[in-house]
Design brief:
This protein is α+β, with helices and mostly antiparallel strands. It has a single domain, classed as Jelly Rolls (Sandwich). Helices cover 19% and strands 32% of the residues. It has nine helices and 22 strands. The protein has helices at 3-6, 18-26, 36-39, 56-69, 72-75, 173-178, 197-200, 226-239, 337-343, and strands at residues 52-54, 79-81, 99-105, 110-116, 120-126, 130-134, 137-140, 146-149, 155-159, 165-171, 184-186, 223-224, 246-249, 264-270, 275-281, 285-291, 294-298, 301-305, 310-313, 317-323, 329-335, 348-349. The strands form four sheets. Strands 1-19-16-21-14-13 form a six-stranded antiparallel beta sheet. A six-stranded antiparallel beta sheet has the order 2-3-10-5-8-12. The chain has a five-stranded antiparallel beta sheet with strand order 7-6-9-4-11, with no helix packed on it. It starts with a helix and ends with a strand. The structure holds 2,5-dihydroxybenzoic acid (GTQ). 2,5-dihydroxybenzoic acid is lined by residues 77, 79, 101, 103, 116, 120, 155, 169, 171.
Length: 350
């Protein structure tokens, strides 16, 4: 018997006598063989993650309406979740391990301090004058900045500007929730300490080493300004004209490893008119346009992404990105690579 035939020969539940099945159920027992192919499908995993596009111009009015309908005191975090229907909207996930939300903070509002087990990052989408205070460090929020809120750190958001501020939250909430480890602790307004890591780590190749000792903080940098990421991408593109994927990874400068535990974060520049083929890799991905206009082809879907649009791709699928402008376009990417590497399941299929 060859391998292909073997996939059709397993017994079904209906093949078993009803009284035997009832007896199994009564003892909390389940026969594996009728479900074996479902949990271990041949060659490619079953994926519920569908390619989905969220247009910022379509969701923005609804987010602003939420600002009128629900005061911050009634929301704590005023967020519209970008949910993948493939996972069931009510499950609030974009992919198995990633949660995405657009959060609105209006002038004068304060989203109170709390800390939780899931890891979060914020990618600032619009507005100025808001800050998020993470672990006592006050971080200004400007378009394109990436601000970390790692597991367990106190955080609160406040807004002294005069226009709405919006940002994209990316959390590993579905993963931590699945692990039955997701919870929050409410807190008081934090005492702000003087800026910690960001300025002293601003030069990539130079680390602070007082008395020859490396820093020991788990998260030495909490805010990665867009201006730095953009400049790094432009320098890379300029220095390596033949390089296809002009991409940088947000890392912890002390370790050189991914900035957070489970999700990976990257900035990608597409040259004017460039088409970039990303290989099929096991992790699911999210793409958010920081600046520009990009066509994304993901499995059978083609999305024309404008400024501040977001889309997602299931794992094990190639993605083609095309810059629709005659200027560089810039994307923020989040994926599940660190998790897949930890699990030992990371793969690339060319
Ligand atoms: O800003 O702390 O989108 O706790 C979901 C949960 C944002 C936040 C979210 C949160 C936050």
């Amino acid at each position: 018997m060859n391998d292909t035939a073997r996939f059709d020969t397993l017994g079904r539940l209906e093949d078993l006598p009803q009284d035997y099945r009832d007896e199994l159920t009564a003892q909390n027992l389940v026969p594996l063989w009728p479900s074996l192919r479902a949990v271990l499908p041949p060659n490619v995993p079953t994926r519920n993650t569908r390619p989905i596009h969220w247009s910022y111009s379509a969701l923005r009015p609804l987010l602003m309406q939420a600002g009128e309908l629900t005061p911050i005191e009634k929301a704590e975090r005023r967020v519209l979740v970008l949910a993948n229907p493939g996972h069931g909207l009510e499950n609030m996930k974009v992919s198995p391990a990633m949660y995405l939300g657009m959060q609105l903070l209006l002038p004068g509002e304060w989203a109170p301090a709390h800390r939780h087990t899931p890891n979060a990052v914020r990618m600032i989408v619009e507005g100025a004058g808001a800050t998020t205070t993470v672990g006592g460090q006050k971080c200004p929020m400007e378009r394109g900045d990436l601000i970390l809120t790692p597991t367990g750190l106190w955080h609160e958001h406040e807004h002294d500007g005069d226009k709405p501020v919006v940002w994209l939250d990316v959390l590993d909430l579905p993963l931590v929730y699945y692990a039955e480890a997701s919870y929050v602790i409410e807190g008081e307004r934090q005492t702000v300490s003087p800026m910690r890591g960001d300025p002293v780590y601003a030069r990539g190749g130079l680390l602070p080493t007082p008395m020859f000792e490396r820093g020991s903080a788990d998260y030495p940098v909490l805010r990665y300004p867009w201006a730095e990421a953009r400049a790094a991408l432009l320098a890379l593109a300029d220095h390596q004209p033949d390089l296809d994927a002009v991409q940088v990874t947000y890392v912890n400068p002390e370790t050189g490893r991914d900035a957070q535990n489970n999700l990976g974060f990257y900035a990608l520049m597409l040259r004017p008119g460039q088409t970039l083929n990303l290989p099929a890799r096991s992790p699911s991905q999210v793409f958010h346009v920081v600046e520009g206009q990009v066509q994304a082809r993901i499995v059978g879907s083609t999305f024309d992404l404008q400024d501040a649009d977001t889309c997602c791709a299931p794992g094990y699928e190639a993605v083609t990105l095309k810059n629709l402008r005659n200027e560089p376009s810039f994307l923020f990417i989040a994926d599940e690579s660190p998790l897949h590497r930890k699990l030992g399941v990371y793969e690339r299929r060319d």
